[in-house]
Design the sequence.
């Protein structure tokens, strides 16, 4: 199987996943207690007006009709209109997406910068006290809830030291504390994987040979060991996306960032069907694409995988 | 091994590129949402005496929520932006009297079924179109067509322009509650002709009214810039300047949802006025010498709605016991005294408020654990098994208290209310939902105790809560129904106030609602801002006389 | 015949060796984790004795007091003793963590067994379902489910369990696949044991070690997810001293009374840490090849 057909196959498998997720979510949203129309209507609105609004929004239709209506519009690039703000969902998403992407990007940079470097140091110092200390630090940092870490960083840097804004978005520096709170727990996972891979690679024959040949230390490490050890870590980067998005919901809500995660949280509360569906669609597509990319990197490096991993789980 | 290297190199290059492109793209997309306005280079030609200190010519107001649209006839809730763009015919002054704004004067005839408004001959919309009787009529017709609150004008059967500047409104029946719509920006005329020409969507972005400022630019997610409406004229008795404000050229309304950020901006001097001051911060702001805090009482109360159909709450003695068990001073204390303990159903910021009713209620239902226990005992509820919870026929007195997560004062009060009820032997368990969902549950009669609130200047709001048909909640009392219906038709305000006082007396006997407190609304203003007027019931800002010294 | 059966079943359980216990005792971090956990369990069991006040005892005169000898961790906005609430909260955290893991292990193990035992269509369907779940941010799905079920701890437990059983299914499926062709399973089948019996009597015991390790390692994330949901306001109802709910209430007073936010977080971290340390140790000793993701 060539790389191209492998990619196509992977993406094709992704399509039912996207459908499945949107159908399940549509059903969940449909069975939510509470009536979105009544929720947007105030105390002084008459029952007739409520019915009229329900018809206008198409919410008097059975759920499968609503789903296919939604789907037929999505195919044409129309994600619908928010029932709360009356704005097009695609517009709302385009406004919010950059903040979330930026937050994820910064936090990934931080998390990989910390995780990879400490992982390497730890691997090279394997068995020494410093390795133990770093490993324990890693375990501690992924035991910390991100939202609490955010709260504490807010307290220290925003309030006591007054170095960074407490919450809200005033520029890129506003994303620093939120990104850190997302990054620290996940950097621990990166560090542990990096350490394990590095130790494994350092024991491989070709690296031992390189050592034995008396090649310069840095050359052996960078050319032979690091490059091979870092690849699984890169793959993990792609697979981490859903976890990061999930974390972004909590962190954006805590820091009142105008991102997609906070919009999702608010939309679930307000039962803004169209917005929730739109965001979930984007998240699922992003996840499938990144998963495929991750698989692709693996497959590109190891042709055997294409056969093995192409089947089953 | 070669392909290995090649591939990994490619992968690395692609990754770096992807990251770089994504970084640049998002950075560009994240253009700062707000750029501080540069002071105008050419000072406006306004009379400034040499002794006048240098003035800042842009007033910046920070509010928590961005409006969903600027057309007041299309939104479900209006705010400060609409207050600037639109001008009601009449408004309430600080004593809850109706005074003119756009209108010169008005008459109520035919026992309240005919309203006649006189419009000044020079009244204009901000785009220069005249505000005639015909224009106002068109605006109200549009309201009846498209507003979610179209019902407000349901009693209007006919509107006639007697002449260019006189509008006659004929009503099916007397409708004094109509005034509470007319005094808000909902009742203000919009330029319906422009609205028709550009369509509802465009008008919702570029609405035209006759208010003191007009839309210049709306940057979504950030702010609205408003420019002085040079056609503005007002008949407000309590402002000195009846024309356009010469000292303030622009008003910028910024949307900052995060409480603390809004205040930080004020303290840093980047914002002049902050609305929606979080109650936790009031104490700190009070100590800040550069900030002035305006306080108004909310036009409504926070209360517990009781399901009077459900045992044991159908026994009025149990409801009275709950009323007596509550220690409202403690509740006010844990809310940092940002609320006023309340015992009756209308707040001082509402039309027809009568202080005597509140005083009587306060003495009747002052916190009294023993009296509450005694009432429960009379009703048959005694703690027979010594578990601290009273019981009757082997059933303990357990109730569910619905608490809104998105209403901080109520949410914080809930556990305290729970503890206070426990002291008289009532076990309440709290269930937290969003406010809107709780409202729905109460509408379906699917609740026992629910924490709720209302906010509306006219006492007619009570009809939607306790009237057996209009409200259709669990409570029904023909006498109360009659009084609340009467309140809709009595035009004389003293008489009307009497009607609502009698209704409240009945409600205090039946207690379908258990009043808790009246909220204080705060506006934090930079000391340099002079002449700002903030009036109840809605804390409406009048910027007519504002000057910002530097 | 019955002798044969007994022998076979005994063989299925023979994976346990006593030397591993010795290894475990020598695993320093594991011992630290166990010690931490013991402290927290002790707190939970003796809450009624060591907490100076009840978790719901309100006293408005004492509100927002900083930590002192009388109130070790200060008091909250209703004048409740934060230390007492933390102590009672240990019960909730442990109970919730264990309950979530039981439910998710129940779902995951069953599906994994079925999927691994019967290859073919059933396997494909279950695998696809697992994949789908794997590809989706768990907290978002949990949030949606809690909104349907309504707020409350039980519903949070269900929601978190329903979205996070995938690791169990994957690992049990892989183990089952490798066990199905082993001789003792073949033999069992030959003597006419039913599929159900083979799955639960022969295969399951052999996957038990992995499951236990996995369970220890997933308790922390179960606790983190449930507290996150409580923190967002969907979880425990007041006055329950859930640590996440305490953070939710405390964050309004973060600058004036930070002790309301500091201590619950510290204890969430310590509890998660204890299970992580213990889980790592168990894995190192019992099942070194197990990988969570």
Sequence:
């Amino acid at each position: 199987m060539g790389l191209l057909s492998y990619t196509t196959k992977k993406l094709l498998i992704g399509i039912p996943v996207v459908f499945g997720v949107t159908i399940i979510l549509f059903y969940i949203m449909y069975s939510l207690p509470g009536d979105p129309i009544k929720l947007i209507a105030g105390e002084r609105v008459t029952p007739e007006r409520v019915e009229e609004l329900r018809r206008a929004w198409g919410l008097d239709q059975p759920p499968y009709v609503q789903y296919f209506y939604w789907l037929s519009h999505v195919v044409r690039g129309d994600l619908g209109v928010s029932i709360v703000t009356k704005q097009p969902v695609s517009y709302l998403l385009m406004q919010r997406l950059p903040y979330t992407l930026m937050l994820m990007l910064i936090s990934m940079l931080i998390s990989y910068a910390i995780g990879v470097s400490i992982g390497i140091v730890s691997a090279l110092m394997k068995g020494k006290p410093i390795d133990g200390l770093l490993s324990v630090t890693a375990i501690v940092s992924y035991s910390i809830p991100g939202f609490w870490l955010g709260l504490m960083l807010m307290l220290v840097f925003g309030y006591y030291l007054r170095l960074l804004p407490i919450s809200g978005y005033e520029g890129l520096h506003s994303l620093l504390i939120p990104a850190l709170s997302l990054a620290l727990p996940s950097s621990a996972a990166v560090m542990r994987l990096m350490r394990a891979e590095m130790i494994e690679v350092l024991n491989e024959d070709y690296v031992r040979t390189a050592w034995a040949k008396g090649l310069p230390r840095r050359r052996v490490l960078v050319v032979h060991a690091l490059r091979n050890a870092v690849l699984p870590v890169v793959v993990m980067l792609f697979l981490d996306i859903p976890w990061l998005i999930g974390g972004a919901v909590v962190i954006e809500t805590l820091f009142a960032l105008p991102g997609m995660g906070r919009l999702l949280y608010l939309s679930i509360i307000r039962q803004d069907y169209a917005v929730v569906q739109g965001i979930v669609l984007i998240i699922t597509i992003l996840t499938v694409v990144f998963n495929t990319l991750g698989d692709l990197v693996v497959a590109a490096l190891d042709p055997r995988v294409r056969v093995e991993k192409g089947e089953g789980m | 091994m070669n392909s290995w290297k090649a591939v990994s190199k490619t992968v690395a290059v692609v990754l770096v590129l992807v990251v770089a492109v994504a970084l640049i793209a998002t950075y560009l997309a994240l253009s700062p949402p707000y750029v501080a306005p540069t002071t105008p280079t050419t000072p406006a030609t306004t009379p400034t005496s040499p002794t006048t200190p240098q003035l800042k010519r842009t007033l910046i107001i920070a509010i928590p929520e961005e409006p969903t649209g600027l057309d007041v006839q299309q939104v479900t809730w209006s705010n400060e932006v609409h207050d600037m763009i639109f001008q009601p015919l009449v408004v309430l002054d600080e004593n809850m009297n109706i005074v003119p704004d756009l209108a010169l004067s008005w008459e109520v005839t035919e026992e309240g079924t005919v309203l006649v408004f006189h419009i000044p001959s020079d009244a204009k919309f901000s785009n220069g179109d005249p505000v005639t009787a015909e224009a106002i009529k068109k605006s109200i017709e549009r309201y009846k067509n498209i507003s979610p609150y179209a019902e407000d004008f349901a009693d209007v059967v006919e509107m006639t322009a007697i002449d260019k500047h006189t509008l006659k409104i004929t009503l099916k029946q007397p409708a004094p509650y109509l005034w509470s719509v007319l005094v808000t920006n909902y009742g203000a005329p919009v330029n319906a002709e422009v609205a028709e020409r550009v369509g509802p969507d465009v008008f919702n972005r570029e609405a035209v009214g006759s208010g003191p400022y007009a839309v210049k630019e709306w940057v979504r997610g950030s702010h609205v810039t408003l420019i002085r409406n040079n056609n503005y004229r007002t008949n407000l008795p309590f402002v000195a300047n009846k024309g356009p404000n010469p000292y303030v050229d622009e008003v910028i309304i910024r949307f900052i949802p995060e409480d603390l950020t809004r205040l930080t901006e004020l303290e840093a001097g980047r914002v002049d006025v902050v609305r929606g001051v979080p109650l936790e911060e009031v104490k700190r702001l009070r100590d800040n010498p550069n900030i002035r805090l305006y306080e108004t009482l909310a036009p409504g109360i926070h209360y517990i709605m009781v399901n009077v159909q459900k045992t044991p709450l159908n026994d009025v003695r149990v409801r009275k016991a709950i009323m007596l068990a509550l220690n409202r001073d403690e509740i006010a204390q844990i809310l940092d005294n940002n609320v006023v303990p309340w015992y009756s159903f209308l707040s001082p910021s509402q039309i027809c408020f009568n202080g005597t009713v509140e005083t009587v209620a306060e003495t009747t239902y002052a916190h009294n654990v023993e009296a509450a226990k005694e009432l429960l005992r009379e009703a048959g509820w005694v703690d027979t098994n010594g578990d601290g919870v009273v019981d009757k026929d082997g059933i303990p007195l357990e109730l569910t208290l619905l608490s809104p997560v998105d209403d901080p004062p109520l949410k914080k009060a809930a556990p305290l209310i729970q503890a206070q009820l426990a002291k008289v032997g009532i076990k309440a368990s709290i269930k937290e939902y969003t406010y809107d969902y709780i409202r729905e549950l109460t509408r379906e009669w699917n609740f026992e105790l629910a924490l709720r609130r209302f906010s509306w200047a006219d006492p007619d709001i009570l009809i939607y809560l306790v009237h057996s048909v209009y409200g259709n909640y669990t409570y029904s009392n023909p006498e109360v129904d009659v009084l609340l219906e009467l309140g809709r038709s009595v035009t004389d305000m003293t008489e009307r106030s009497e009607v609502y006082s009698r209704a409240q007396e009945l409600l205090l006997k039946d207690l379908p609602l258990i009043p808790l407190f009246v909220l204080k609304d705060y506006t934090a203003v930079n000391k340099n801002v002079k002449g700002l007027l903030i009036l109840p019931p809605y804390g409406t800002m009048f910027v007519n006389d504002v000057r910002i010294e530097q | 015949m019955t002798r044969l059966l007994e022998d076979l079943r005994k063989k299925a359980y023979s994976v346990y060796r006593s030397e591993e216990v010795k290894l475990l005792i020598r695993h320093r971090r594991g011992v630290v984790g166990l010690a931490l956990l013991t402290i927290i369990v002790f707190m939970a069991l003796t809450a009624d004795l060591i907490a100076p006040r009840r978790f719901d005892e309100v006293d408005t005169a004492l509100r927002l007091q900083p930590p002192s000898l009388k109130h070790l961790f200060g008091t909250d906005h209703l004048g409740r003793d934060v230390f007492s609430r933390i102590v009672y909260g240990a019960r909730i955290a442990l109970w919730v963590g264990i309950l979530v893991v039981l439910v998710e292990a129940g779902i995951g193990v069953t599906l994994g067994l079925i999927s691994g035992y019967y290859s073919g269509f059933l396997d494909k369907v279950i695998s696809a379902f697992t994949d789908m779940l794997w590809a989706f941010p768990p907290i978002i799905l949990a949030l949606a489910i809690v909104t349907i079920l309504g707020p409350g701890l039980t519903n949070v437990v269900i929601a978190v369990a329903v979205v996070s059983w995938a690791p169990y299914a994957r690992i049990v499926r892989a183990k089952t696949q490798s066990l199905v062709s082993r001789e003792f399973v073949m033999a069992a089948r030959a003597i006419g044991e039913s599929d159900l019996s083979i799955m639960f009597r022969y295969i399951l015991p052999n996957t038990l070690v992995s499951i236990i390790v996995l369970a220890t390692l997933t308790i922390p994330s179960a606790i983190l997810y449930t507290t996150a949901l409580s923190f967002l306001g969907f979880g425990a109802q007041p006055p329950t001293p859930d640590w996440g709910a305490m953070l939710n209430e405390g964050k309004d007073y973060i600058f004036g009374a930070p002790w309301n936010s500091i201590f619950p977080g510290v204890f969430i971290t310590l509890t998660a840490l204890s299970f992580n340390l213990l889980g790592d140790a168990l894995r190192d000793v019992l099942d070194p090849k197990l990988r969570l993701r």
About this structure: Residues 122 and 134 of chain A are 7 Å apart (CA to CA). Chain A has a mean pLDDT of 80. The longest helix of chain A spans residues 89-124. Chain A touches chain C through 51 residues (CB under 8 Å).
